Fold:
Amino acid sequence: MSELTDEEWASLLGEDANPGLNDADEDSSDEEEDSDNDEPMPLRPQSPTVLLSEEPPAPDNMPQRVKQALAHLSDLGLDFTTFVDAVLWGNEPCRRDSMIRGTRTNFMNSPSFPKILARLWDPPRQQKDRPSRLVMENFVQQAWSDLLVQELNGLAPFFSSKKGEDVTVKALTSLNFTELTAQVQERAPHLWKTLLNLAMSEDQKRNTHKNPSKTIIMILAMLSYSRSHKRNLF
Structure:
């Protein structure tokens, strides 16, 4: 098996083999550190792929190319897990390196990224790997819970009565559910869609006469009050 040279390895990543380093590459400010989130680095033109043979690489030789890349990682004293962890914010110096930062940004903006996530969630094989599935389920549960709690807390102004005032009949009877529903959907879209999916089956969603909006509003009001007794508008 022929090994990739440093130039060939850099070409596979679509980067220059020896990118110049300057003061701009250092993490000298908060703005630089947050550059991944604020302004994604534009996709760089891909360098011509360095061929390991005289013929252009065919799709069926991908396993060979991947094995060569893994072998090169091993030669550098890296395994696949360490490599991916370092690229994806797991190593502080790698976070500040311009070449690695550009590669990471390109990956996160790639159309392949959501497909990779989907395959991690549901691998294309009959016998699912139970331990890895459990890891994914625990991660999804924690991440989704954090997002929904954040949105629920953002709804506090809609369910809170004025400070020092008790709930009145007038306040309840003047409540505009249509307006409130629109505001809640805008402020907490993921929470709303989750409850909507729980409240309706796929067949029921095709029934234009069924609208669980008021039910969802009441559920959100109860959940909000459960987190704080000040959210007692109704």
Summary: The chain has two domains: 6-110, 133-227. Residues 133-227 form one domain. Confidence is low (pLDDT under 50) at residues 17-56. The two ends are 71 Å apart (CA to CA).
